[in-house]
């Protein structure tokens, strides 16, 4: 069927060329014109397939890749949706409109909604509130740290656990520097953490309990450092194995108290949690990096905590509620207004951790294409064997350094959506979502992209182009 479509398009184009070149339309008006026309008579006949080298090549290449992908997928346990396109032309499709569990491919939806609703230049702001202005660098009473949802604050000790040593993070000590630069030298009362910007639901209720262990995602809070891990409050710059999910806002102020004391800013009281006074005085602020950089980190490293906090921020900004539900409602409205078909989209979180999420390959493809067209995301997609979540995948394979894609991985899910630059100079756009029990997990998607590297089989277009004019 694909060959017939290509052949039909070729014949239609040839017909148009014949009409445009017919004597009734382009007949010479003089002997001079006739001579000139004869001088440039092409060697290749008008009805030669050489005049459409791409279509001629595709008539061989498309069936080859169709057979190769089918042969591979038919041996894989489970079910997959696949779409492969070349310059907007679909050259392979399997269950493209069916909804599958997308895993972290859901972050593409979160990113596009955040860029639309929050803006590329938006920032998360951490605020410091006291009962009254400081005098001579001294804050009499408590200093309240009001969280703004910044997801990327980490200490150098925590950085040692990053899977990718090049993963971007914000140095937590910059928070203390902001206070120091404001002239603060002493706090006589407590250091109080206020994370009321978002709700206090630390884990999406439908997530499996295992996500609360092992660092899959932080206990969600508007005030978080080191992904809410214990073990760094007293020695923030030292590596430790004493890590587990803790009380995010309390860990934040405990760690900050340590860092402030190391900077010569004394805290007389304890580190605790509470709420800022409504009539308090703002003594300093700290802004995160721009939202575009936050989202780039989220996509490249598939950062679940970042995705969930961004979703709650969407809820605050669009619905006035810092909840997952409000963020989802606003995100889906944004995606629809941007022209994405979300008919079959089931979005239960921002990260894709929920196995109840559903997305089609058609939507996944549309989202990754949109991401690639935004300059804010120029470095957001991992590169096979080189960066992000693909850094340790596609090593010493045909896909090494040639596949740029958003990954998605759960126990029974493996997804990729992005671009494959083949050795023959063709760029294929693709979406692949596999749901099943195949133990090869990531090998399923990586094996799929290896099949793309063979495209196009058949003669090069340079050998099929019109012959030079004699």
Task: Tell me the layout of helices and strands.
Blueprint: H1 2-20, H2 23-26, H3 31-39, H4 53-73, E1 79-86, E2 89-94, E3 99-100, H5 106-117, E4 125-130, E5 138-139, E6 143-146, E7 153-154, H6 156-159, E8 170-171, H7 173-181, E9 186-187, E10 191-194, H8 248-262, E11 266-267, E12 271-273, E13 281-287, H9 291-301, H10 304-319, H11 324-337, E14 359-360, H12 361-372, E15 403-410, E16 413-421, E17 427-435, H13 442-452, H14 461-464
Parallel strand pairs: 5-9, 6-10, 7-8, 9-11, 10-12
Antiparallel strand pairs: 1-2, 1-17, 3-14, 4-6, 4-13, 15-16, 16-17
Describe, in plain words, how this protein is organized in 3D:
This protein has 470 residues and is an alpha/beta fold. The chain has three domains: 2-58 and 459-464, no CATH class; 70-115 and 320-452, Beta-lactamase (3-Layer(aba) Sandwich); 123-289, D-tyrosyl-trna(Tyr) Deacylase, Chain: A (3-Layer(bba) Sandwich), CATH 3.50.80. Helix content is 34%, strand content 17%. The chain is built from 14 helices and 17 strands. The chain has a five-stranded antiparallel beta sheet with strand order 2-1-17-16-15, sandwiched between helices. A five-stranded mixed beta sheet has the order 12-10-6-4-13, with helices on one face. Helix 4 packs antiparallel against helix 13 (442-452). The longest helix has 21 residues, at 53-73. It is elongated. Residues 1-28 and 46-53 have low confidence and may be disordered.
Keyword list:
D-tyrosyl-trna(Tyr) Deacylase, Chain: A; 17 strands; 470 residues; alpha/beta; 3 domains; Beta-lactamase; disordered N terminus
